[in-house]
Amino acid sequence: MAADYSKLLDKEVWAFIERSNSYYPPDKVHYTTEERRAIYDRMCRDFFAGYPNGISVETSAIAEEGHDIPIRTYRNETRDDAALVLYFHGGGFVLGGLESHDDVCAELCQRTSYDVVSVDYRLAPEHLHPAAFDDALAAFEWAIATSERNIVLCGDSAGANLAAGVSHATRGHSRRPTGQVLIYPTLGGDQSKGSYVTHAEAPMLTVSDMAFYDEARTGGADIPADIAYAPLKDANFANLPPTVIVSAECDPLSSDGQAYCERVTADGGRCAWFNEKGLVHGYLRARHSVGRARTSFTRIVEAVKGLGNGEWIY
User: Fold this and answer.
1) Residue 247 annotated as catalytic
2) Average pLDDT over every residue of 25-46
3) Which of 37, 153, 188, 272 is deepest in the core (most CB within 10 A)?
4) Which of 115, 134, 135, 251 is flagged as catalytic?
5) Which residues pair with 83 in a beta bridge?
């Protein structure tokens, strides 16, 4: 049964949805990738909330064979050296970059006092899977090679998929992530049930939107058994880092967060899943205008802070 969003969403959330949708023309389905990126970038710029006081920023790159991976490092003048946060932005593996989540990373740095490194991984369709994952893994390997601090992985949507992929890929490493915070993650769940059905036509992200992004990411190839593509396909969820998942209730992807958390805890790990009532995909941009989003962002900050200090607060 389809959800009734007139009852699930409050006025603040509807205002956010309407503001977001105002950037997209009715015929967006016919737009090219570059046109979609231009619209997304303009929307993100217009939601940009600025930098908090006390934050310095440096843009550089990780040198990889054949290409560089741009990164942006955020530092707080009241720095806490316990941890470093690697942040992977959302955007369906097609959109976004260092600018799209610039203020989110700055605020995460300010509120945790940890250094935050935003990773500008390669995008599809120019670079098909596993290019984005390879860059995410390379960023983690760079982080452990250049810092003795705990490494916390954090990302939203597509970026949360990359964070989880890195956590699965590094379980056998001598240094592994200290924790991961996955924000409305896409993890390759069963699209025949749960939120994929109830919220198939949710505001901000639909199942058909997801199909478009998946086609761009894979080039149409069928890769169902690749854990780096769909972490929920893993047969073993033991020895993963402590995990906090924050989903949006009105989002096709909310069941992915639940399923992933159940798999982690069933295999003896620590996981907490929060399904934020009355919120939609992409609500990080609403953290200054929607009370529910503001509360959820505080939950995210607390999760990152605790995991960075090696604490489990749930």
Assistant:
1) no
2) 89
3) 153
4) 251
5) 150
Average pLDDT value for residue range 82-90: 98
Residue 313 domain-assigned? no
Let me know: does 105 contact 87? Beta carbons within 8 Å: yes
Average pLDDT over the chain reads: 96
Residue 246 lies in a domain: yes
The SS3 call for residue 169 is helix
Q: Which of 22-26, 134-138, 180-184 has the lowest mean pLDDT?
A: 22-26
20, 100, 113, 157: the catalytic one is: 157
From 115, 195, 281, 296, active-site residue: 281
What is the number of alpha carbons within 13 Å of residue 209 lying toward its C-beta? 23
Is 281 one of the catalytic residues?
Answer: yes
- Predicted TM-score (pTM) of the model is 0.98
pLDDT of 129 reads 97
Whether 30 is catalytic is: no
- Asked whether residue 124 is domain-assigned, the answer is yes
* Unique residue bearing structure tokens 């006025």: 11
Contact 24, 41 (CB under 8 A): no
pLDDT of residue 259: 98
pLDDT for 225 beyond 90: no
**How much is the average pLDDT of 16-35?**
88
Q: How far is CA 218 from CA 124, 213, 233, 244, 303, in A?
A: 8, 9, 16, 27, 32
Assess if residue 250 is contained within a domain: yes
Number of compact structural domains in the chain: 1
Q: Which domain holds residue 163?
A: 5-308
